[in-house]
Specification:
seven-stranded mixed β-sheet; binds S-adenosylmethionine; 9 helices
């Protein structure tokens, strides 16, 4: 299996730095992100009052929900993209500690935790280095709750059904007398398998206890809004017109996509 090189990882993190504000708006509008977070939060023990980590915490959505459910918890949000850390700080102020690190290098932070959670980000990570890194900071008996988009998991990859949203963008471009969009390069996701995760986890003391697949129907507009977060999206179109084309594509767009997500609960033994 090929994993991204250091420089590719830097590119990924930089892309989230630039998209931070757009992402924060997207998660407000589309409840799928909050639903994912709420399911993970349920994996922590009731009345949790220890130290929890929000890994790849982004703008702080999971940390906010975790603290609402567990007001006595201490929380550290770990996030490598500066733009995201700024938004998390704005959202949660002094209710959390915020650290700059990738999931693969948590040992640099010199901390110990009683729970770790990670939402909507595991597909961006190398599990062979991330799971041992997380295990190294967790106390015995702690939970690691993490989810994965279905397109990155072998058991759910075929459950995903998407309407071809590009046709609506092309229709909108056509109305503005503009040529069709450049088809985005197909980004082949790294497919993780349950057996592989179980094996890698077991080798570092993180035992896989639960796997739950959740399938959601979502308007195809979501795919356009997600793509439009990327600053390269329709970058051949003049600024100002670009926003109008996107708005028109969203008006024209119809249909439902099926997105699956998978929730995993690991326990440190
Ligand atoms: C889709 S956002 C999810 C943010 C947040 N967990 C949420 O649920 O809203 C993905 C996040 O993963 C972060 N990320 C990307 N690669 C990472 C890595 N190797 N280690 C830690 N975080 C990473 C990005 O900077 C970005 O903030």
């Amino acid at each position: 299996m090929n994993y991204p090189s250091e420089s590719t990882q830097d590119d990924v993190i930089h892309s989230w730095h630039i998209r931070a504000h757009a992402y924060d708006k997207l998660i407000e509008r589309w409840p799928i992100f909050t639903n994912m977070v709420d399911r993970l939060v349920e994996f922590a023990p009731k009345d949790f009052d220890g130290h929890a980590l929000d890994i790849a915490g982004g703008s702080g959505l999971l940390a906010e929900h975790f603290l609402r459910r567990n007001p006595k918890a201490r929380m550290t949000l770990v996030e490598p993209a500066e733009g995201m850390r700024a938004l998390a700080s704005r959202r949660l102020g002094n209710r959390i500690i915020i650290k700059d690190a990738t999931s693969e290098k948590l040992d640099r932070l010199e901390l110990n935790a009683d729970a770790a959670l990670c939402s909507a980000s595991f597909h961006l990570m190398n599990e062979e280095t991330t799971l041992p890194s997380i295990a190294s900071v967790l106390e015995k008996g702690s939970v690691f709750a993490v989810n994965l988009w279905g397109h990155s998991f072998d058991e759910t990859i075929n459950l995903e059904q998407k309407v071809d949203w590009i046709k609506f963008v092309d229709q909108a471009l056509n109305e503005f007398d503009l040529p069709p969009m450049n088809r985005p390069k197909k980004n082949t996701p790294r497919i993780k398998s349950k057996e592989e995760l179980r094996k890698i986890g077991k080798n570092c003391g993180l035992h896989l206890r639960e796997t739950n697949i959740v399938t959601t129907e979502i308007e195809t507009q979501f795919s356009i809004e997600f793509a439009a977060m990327d600053f390269n999206f329709l970058n051949q179109v003049e600024k100002g017109i670009r926003e109008q084309v996107i708005a028109r594509a969203l008006e024209l767009c119809c249909g439902l996509d099926t997105i699956s997500t998978v929730d995993f609960k690991f326990e440190k033994v």
